[in-house]
Design goal:
- The mean pLDDT is 95.
- Strands 3-2-1-4-5-6-7-8 form an eight-stranded mixed sheet, sandwiched between helices.
- It folds into two domains: 7-49 and 98-218, 3-Layer(aba) Sandwich (Rossmann fold); 230-313, N-(1-d-carboxylethyl)-l-norvaline Dehydrogenase, domain 2, CATH 1.10.1040.10.
- Strand 6 (169-174) and strand 7 form a beta hairpin.
- The protein is an alpha/beta fold.
- The protein is globular.
- The protein has twelve helices and eight strands.
- The longest helix is centred in the N-terminal third of the chain and has 35 residues, at 37-71.
- It has helices at residues 14-25, 37-71, 78-87, 94-103, 127-140, 156-159, 194-205, 227-243, 249-260, 266-273, 275-289, 298-305, and strands spanning 7-10, 30-33, 104-107, 118-121, 146-149, 169-174, 183-188, 215-218.
- 38% of the residues are buried.
- It binds nicotinamide-adenine-dinucleotide.
- Nicotinamide-adenine-dinucleotide binds next to helix 1, helix 5 and strand 6.
């Protein structure tokens, strides 16, 4: 059994800050590390931002539901109104938001990880960077600690090779944003101990994010794991279709939403993920599987070359200015 009295997160960026918030939301004290104090502060501000977002979401629920019901032409009786108010009463208070923020402690020092039971590495997607972090953590972590990485594409077997914690290492691949998407792909390396995998799955199963209980699934160590292996080729194919002038970007997204029941169109989703990330994963799938079917589209390459990476730069397949 994995009992996490204190957790660590390395990298206070998009994913690291959100993973730290999810852990703190589940009442686990967290140390959040980045390389510089300003980056740590930015991460802590992100944590606060997530709790503010949840407060706003909860406060708006009642009004949204009223609008939805009115839109359907329904008029509530005072009794029904009372039930609705009770049901949709905000369950998350400002006091709780403050507790979450205070549960996350920022640091630039590895020594802060001396007493953690689990650490999730969420720094840049680069083998040398992640290996450096794994080596530093290996020296400082307690013997029993689980060393997890949020990598989207790197091999945890290679990342942990030869380390004291090699048998305690695995991938916990959260999805963006972890505060609302519940899936976590759990991937063991060649040397990972079986009880470390089952304990981590069980631990994650006991957590929830702002909307749902987490959904950890065990996936074999293959390039792209499961979701990216299916998703990225689909997004890439959408780029090919766009390049061939089959339809416009808007029509392509509308078609997939209206015809395949997707909540977001592929190009909207690619813009949200980041086109550089999509391109990188497509290239990894192509190299690792050696199959030309994973070849990234020119449309995607051109946009990345131009620095139009999607929402994060204000322009991708769509303009966000
Ligand atoms: N963004 C996504 O949609 C997404 C989804 C799933 C998984 N991932 C994976 O999560 C990881 C992080 O991605 P991100 O989007 O949060 O990146 P990001 O660039 O937003 O954040 C990375 C953070 O790590 C910090 N960092 C770099 N080197 C460090 C070091 N040696 N020690 C401590 N901190 C260090 C950086 O300063 C930065 O703040 C990557 O492995 C990525 O593949 C990303």
């Amino acid at each position: 059994m994995l009992y996490v009295r204190k957790a660590g997160v390395v990298g206070a960026g998009t994913m690291g800050a959100a993973i730290a918030e999810v852990l703190a939301f589940n009442e686990i004290p967290v140390v959040l590390k980045d390389v510089r104090e300003d980056l740590v502060q930015r991460g802590l501000n992100r944590v606060r931002g997530f709790t503010e977002e949840l407060l706003r979401f909860q406060e708006a629920r009642l009004e949204k539901e009223r609008e939805r019901l009115e839109g359907m032409g329904l008029k509530l009786t005072p009794e029904q109104e009372g039930i609705l108010q009770e049901r949709l009463k905000p369950k998350f208070s400002r006091a709780r938001a403050e507790q979450i923020v205070h549960r996350v402690e920022g640091t630039t020092e590895d020594s802060a990880f001396r007493d953690v039971d689990l650490v999730v590495e969420a720094a840049f997607e680069s083998f040398p960077v992640k290996r450096g972090i794994f080596e530093a953590l290996d020296r400082i972590l307690p013997e029993h600690a689980v060393l997890a990485t949020n990598t989207s594409s790197l091999s945890v077997t290679r990342l942990a090779r030869g380390l004291l914690h090699a048998r305690n290492s695995l991938v916990t691949h959260f999805f963006n944003p972890p505060t609302t998407l519940p899936l976590v792909e759990v991937v063991a390396g060649v040397d990972t101990r079986e009880d470390v995998v089952t304990d981590t799955l069980e631990f994650l199963q006991g957590l929830r994010n702002h909307r749902y209980p987490l959904v950890p699934i065990r996936v074999k160590e293959v390039p792209g794991f499961l979701v990216n292996r299916l998703l990225i080729p689909m997004l890439n194919e959408a780029c090919f279709a766009l390049d061939e002038g089959v339809v416009s970007a808007r029509e392509l997204d509308q078609a997939l939403k209206a015809g395949a029941g997707l909540p977001m169109g592929p190009l909207e989703l690619a813009d949200m993920i980041g086109l550089d990330v999509c391109l990188e994963v497509a290239q990894i799938l192509q190299t690792e599987y050696g199959d030309p079917k994973y070849r990234p589209s020119l449309a995607l390459k051109r946009l990345v070359d131009a620095g139009h990476l999607g929402r994060k730069t204000g322009r991708g397949f769509y303009d966000y200015a």
